[in-house]
Amino acid sequence: MADFTLVLGNKTYSSWSLRGWLIVRHCGMPFEEIVIPLDRPETKAEIRRYNPAGKVPVLHAGDLRVWDTLAIAEYMNERFPAAGLWPADPAARAAARSVAAEMHAGFAALRRLMPMDLRRPPGPMRGLASDDGLDADINRIQEIWTDCRARFGQGGNYLFGDFGAADAMFAPVVSRFVTYEVALNEAAAAYRDTVMTWPAMQDWIAAAKTEPWVISNP
Ligand SMILES: N[C@@H](CCC(=O)N[C@@H](CS)C(=O)NCC(=O)O)C(=O)O
């Protein structure tokens, strides 16, 4: 394997892989990718060859394995501090880690009801029209984005100014809001558009569109 290898799920569906990939790519060093299609009989065994925890993404850095997206963000930040994955200001950094952790641990309704699917033609969810938990998740995400942009975003168009790990954590949510045509307030819509036009995000989406595997979604 190369010095850095990132093992991913398929790009159309694997929201955690997108987060990890955006973080690693932002650091600018070359890395190899191994893509494992999700939701197939052999998926678990295939992932376990690279990560005994059975999840993607997992980063192999030489002999070291780093799994779980937040651990990857912290490791990459230590190896590549100039990439600015976390804000330099301690208050902004604490807020960035808080919202990243909130994303990592929460928003169960959004994840369950609006799976990431980068090849689904945009349109509202089929079947279930709305759900209290989903509405609460969408409102809280808009609140996070609006608040971070207003308090910490002056230096750029991302949550804390320049692109960082917190933005990577929310990137799959941005794509879900586009896919399922979720109406957003002005600040949240502007942030959504910033993330969707980020070249790294565009590259990931372009790669997803070439994938052959299909998982059906709502
Ligand atoms: N907490 C983990 C979550 C990783 C995760 O759930 N990955 C999913 C793909 S998006 C996965 O590996 N699914 C395959 C499986 O569970 O068999 C992280 O932050 O990386």
Task: Walk me through the structure.
- Helix content is 50%, strand content 9%.
- It has two domains: 4-83, Glutaredoxin, CATH 3.40.30.10; 90-203, Up-down Bundle (Glutathione S-transferase Yfyf (Class Pi), Chain A, domain 2), CATH 1.20.1050.
- The chain is of the alpha+beta class and 218 residues long.
- Helix 1 (15-26) packs parallel to helix 3 (69-79).
- The chain binds glutathione.
Which ligands, by name, code or SMILES, are bound? glutathione
Give the overall shape, derived from the CA principal axes. globular
User: What's the story with the biggest beta sheet?
Assistant: 4 strands, mixed
The ordered H/E elements are EHEHEEHHHHHHH
Structural class label? alpha+beta
Strand content: 5-15%
Low-confidence stretches: none
The largest beta-sheet arranges its strands as: 2-1-3-4
Number of domains: 2
**Alpha carbon gap, first and last residue:** 37 Å
> In total, how many beta strands?
4
Report the CATH architecture of the largest domain.
Up-down Bundle
What name does the CATH topology of the largest domain carry? Glutathione S-transferase Yfyf (Class Pi), Chain A, domain 2
What percentage of residues falls in helices of 4 or more residues? 40-55%
User: What Rg, in angstroms, do the CA atoms define?
Assistant: 17 Å
Mean pLDDT: 96
Keywords:
218 residues, alpha+beta, Glutaredoxin, Glutathione S-transferase Yfyf (Class Pi), Chain A, domain 2, 2 domains, 4-stranded mixed sheet, 9 helices, globular, binds glutathione
